[in-house]
Design brief:
CATH topology of the largest domain: DNA Cyclobutane Dipyrimidine Photolyase, subunit A, domain 3
Helix content: 40-55%
Strand order of the largest sheet: 5-4-1-2-3-6
Distance between the termini: 63 Å
Structural class: mainly alpha
Largest sheet: 6 strands, mixed
Order of helices and strands: EHEHHEHEHEHHEHHHHHHHHHHHHHHH
Number of helices: 22
Shape: globular
Strand content: 5-15%
Number of strands: 6
Number of domains: 3
């Protein structure tokens, strides 16, 4: 056997603060990175062009980082279950290392790859990298996984957080013969988005790559973090980190993120500042809560957590669903948010809650329709976070408050008080005064003159209808 180790990148597209890669590099400098463009994932009907564009940009950045470290990152478009063992055997690899994932498909795939490698006598080592605390590290006193966020957070925050691991600066590249063998096994130049039959012409909210993610982290923690709790719910304000896609694909390490908050905490001079830092840390804990939940309850990926939603009598109105998708519901805050999603592949988190609540509680449509549509559009689409957010908004998930109904007008008045967000995404409504814009009390004549649709449902009536259905289902 040679001293070559294959490192299989998945949701860790960086050289810095990468636990599995660091461990491989501790054993040899001849660590060869490999990334599989998995047809099982790319051919799904919930793939988002913006997300694939971000992924390809991260891979381009990662290839550059490997070259700068005098190493190689191989790109293959193949099923990793068959292809990884073949590549490892062809390159005479001593071992294959990778960082684990919590998603049901990933777990099943990884077990198959590991079994095939071991049959060929190739060693496997796996690590937890994408979480500050791996599944099983944060449990109740009864050694059970948490089903409610608040006690999870209280336990999670008290546990010591690991420090970032060092950056890989020096690697050994493949020989010409090994490169030839890798190409014979399917190694290809990095494809373009169009090669997958996809297109995305708009800019991404966060440019892809490790350097861009680390720059954004530094920028956020130098300014917006200190007013995070005040500003995070206002979609017209640049008050969030915008790091969700970077964390999804691992363009930035979660330990580095946490260490940056620790440095900010250390430099803070007021309780108010620390309160804002803590508020962002709670959001990082929400991310981990949803990932732990999906790991321990993989059935969440396919349906609701709460029994009363298993056979809920949803409406089957495809016209209403299409109006929601297109941002043509006649409710300005909802339509502005959907316009944002369709245009830039991202939506502010407060607005995600508003539109999800509207789809399920006002249109009384199945939350899984909205969950899938989000995944078809979001550049930061993540199964655990998206599913957890939708189930929270629907009241079908792990939530001590089972029924939560938003009034779109009240939400707009509270979180977009000047109508800036609505005006930006619905410029056709710029001539309206702020009260009309926020309440949606726009006359039929004005709507017609502005080519803006009538409300497709009555909020109060639908709210009563949803509550009636909910109570009937609960009693049943």
């Amino acid at each position: 056997m040679s001293d070559l180790i294959l490192f299989w990148h998945r949701r860790d597209l960086r050289l810095n603060d990468n636990i599995g890669l660091h461990q491989a590099h501790e054993q040899t400098t001849k660590v060869v990175g490999v990334f599989y463009l998995d047809p099982q994932l790319l051919n799904n009907d919930d793939i988002a062009p913006a997300r694939v564009k971000y992924l390809l940009g991260c891979l381009r950045s990662l290839q550059t980082s490997y070259r700068q470290a005098r190493g190689d990152l191989l790109i293959l478009h193949a099923d990793p279950i068959a292809a990884i063992p073949e590549l490892a055997q062809t390159l005479n690899a001593n071992a294959v290392f990778w960082n684990l994932d919590i998603e049901p498909y990933a777990g099943k795939r990884d077990r198959a790859v590991e079994s095939a490698l071991k049959e060929k006598g190739i060693s496997v080592q796996t690590f937890w990298d994408q979480l500050l605390h791996a599944p099983g590290d944060v449990l109740t006193k009864g050694e059970d996984p948490y089903k409610v966020y608040t006690p999870f957070w209280k336990n999670w925050q008290q546990q010591a957080k690991a420090k970032p691991v060092g950056q890989i600066k020096q690697l050994s590249s493949l020989t010409a013969e090994e490169t030839e063998k890798a190409q014979a096994m399917g190694a290809i130049p990095l494809p373009q988005l169009e090669d997958f039959g996809l297109s995305w012409d708009n800019e991404l909210p966060l440019p892809p790559g490790e350097n861009e993610a680390r720059d954004r982290l530094e920028q956020f923690c130098d300014s917006a973090l200190f007013e995070y709790d005040q500003n995070r719910n206002y979609p017209a304000v640049d008050g969030t980190s915008l790091l969700s896609a970077a964390l999804k694909f691992g363009a930035v390490g979660i330990r580095e993120v946490w260490q940056t908050t620790e440095q900010a905490w250390k430099n803070s001079r007021s309780d108010e500042t620390r309160h804002n830092i803590q508020a962002w840390r709670q959001e990082l804990a929400w991310r981990e809560f949803y990932q732990h939940a999906l790991y321990f309850f993989p059935e969440l990926a396919d349906g609701p957590f709460r029994p009363q939603f298993q056979n809920f009598p949803w409406e089957d109105n495809l016209d209403h669903f299409q109006a929601w998708c297109d941002g043509k519901t006649g409710y300005p805050i909802v339509d502005a948010a959907m316009r944002q999603l369709n245009t830039i592949g991202w939506m502010h988190n407060r607005c995600r809650m508003i539109v999800a609540n509207f789809l399920t509680k006002d249109l009384i449509l199945n939350w899984q329709w909205g969950e899938k549509y989000f995944m078809q559009k979001l550049f930061d689409g993540d199964l655990a976070a998206n599913n957890g957010g939708w189930q929270w908004s629907t009241s079908s998930g792990m939530d001590p408050k089972p029924l939560r109904i938003f009034n779109p007008a009240s939400q707009a008045q509270k979180f977009d008080p000047e109508g800036e967000y609505i005006r930006y995404w619905l410029p056709e409504l710029n001539s309206l005064d702020t009260e009309e814009l926020l309440t949606g009390n726009i006359s039929a004549m004005e709507r017609e003159s502005l080519d803006y649709p009538q409300p497709i449902v009555d909020h109060k009536q639908q709210q009563r209808d949803f509550k009636r259905r909910y109570q009937q289902q609960k009693q049943a």
